[in-house]
């Protein structure tokens, strides 16, 4: 689902703004803008990108879920976060084929029930994926900076608080989808989108602002603060190849998160300001912003393909477990893998790709 779907202009749209349907899918323009180029761009670009993200996401996150399933008895707290993250990303990418078909055909074929269901699955897993990353950074902070007696708080975070701090808020954020998402007929086609009551522009702006705050600003601040403190801790510790690797990996985690999500959220912010008439409208700006959000949205979604690499595949233990899980003759050996415990100052490559410490 392109977050910019609300600017799609129906065929019978005229310059008379008083005829606005109130569906929440039309911006008020002083003049009609030519959307033909952007429309053709989205029909080609979005299905291709969604298809690539779907395939990579299914393979990467599916492998993580399989490996975690095989090593149930030796699963660490870090592994529990990996599993939560991969399940969220896996369910998220499962919604992309629906949006790809709609983008390619300019038509929603799957009915009203599936429209609401896909919207809700999309929303809950989009938010939960980002919030889980914040929880992982908190866990790494406790493991590295507050290593003494951190097992209790870390266990509480991984086994209890994650449901209240991640899955419950993500589920509550699907309420607008349940209320507003509809498969609506627009002239000769059916579109699956949120249909807001009047004043539709205020509703749109409110939900887009919510997306920026809950889906980027709050988890982004937690990630940035926790990892910056971790970097400071590691930089002032003892020197060694392992700690240099941990520092580099921490920087990679920060750069990847903000590189993927910041451009997209910046585009949504500008769009929100346009909706509220804080920024003056112009066809050039609208057309350029539409393409910007198409491209950066794909970049943001691509982060769910990077998560298995950043938070699982770089770990030494995970790679060994994956080889065992994919080897029929050795698959059963995963059930008896010993559960390692790390000390305060050790920097083991076992932990989630950040290689901070064994969990």
From TrEMBL:
Major localization class: membrane
Region spans: Disordered: 326-359
Family label: Belongs to the G-protein coupled receptor 1 family.
Identification of the protein by name: G-protein coupled receptors family 1 profile domain-containing protein
Bias-annotated ranges (Low complexity): 345-359
CDD domains assigned to the protein according to its UniProt record, in alphabetical order: 7tmA_CXCR4
GO cellular component term of the entry, any: late endosome
Coiled coil: none
Transmembrane parts of this sequence: 44-69, 81-101, 107-136, 157-175, 209-230, 251-280, 292-314
Pfam families registered for this protein in UniProt: 7tm_1
Subcellular location: Cell membrane; Early endosome; Late endosome; Lysosome
